[in-house]
Amino acid sequence: MKTVKECIKYLFDNHYINDRQTPTISATLTHLRRLSALEAENKRMREALTPSDGTRAAYIGEFQFAFPAFDGEGNDHEYTPNVSWTTIKQIMARILNRSALSVGGVEPT
To answer: Coil, strand or helix: which one is 105?
Structure first.
C-alpha cells in the first residue's frame, strides 16, 4: 500500500491535481485509509463473534469455571469444567445484541 505522500506525488506528477488541491486530497486519502482500517477491524470482530468451525476451534477449552466439590470422604476439591460450546454461542449472541451488530441480519444461535 502506498503512503499518502506517494499517492499525492503520483497525482501531482501526472497532472491530476494542482498545488491548491494537495491538502484536500491528502486529507481525503488519510480518511479513506482510516475507513479501510476500520472496515477491516469490523470484519475481524464480526468473524470473532460469529459461531463457526473456526471460532469453535479457537474458543473450546479456553473458558472454565471453578466450584467446590466434595469427595465421598468429605474432602473438598475444586472442580473446573470447561464452558460448553452452547454457552459460548449464547455469550457471543449477547455480545452481538449488546453491540447492536447482527451478522448478515441473523443473530447467532
So the answer is: coil
H/E element holding 37? helix 22-48
Residue 34 has pLDDT above 90, yes or no: no
Please state, in angstroms and rounded to a whole number, the distance separating the CA atoms of residues 37 and 18: 28
Beta bridge mates, 106? 103
- Report d(CA 37, CA 34) in Å as an integer: 5
Q: pTM of this prediction?
A: 0.56
11 CB-contact burial (10 Å; exposed 0-12 / middle 13-18 / buried 19+): middle
| Residue 103 β-bridge partners | 106
Contacts of 51 (CB under 8 A, 6+ apart): 89, 92, 108, 109
Q: What are all long-range contacts of 78-85, with beta carbons under 8 Å and residues at least 24 apart?
A: 85/56, 85/59, 85/60
Nearest alpha carbon to residue 54 among 22, 92, 28: 92
Strand-strand pairing, 67-70 and 76-79: antiparallel
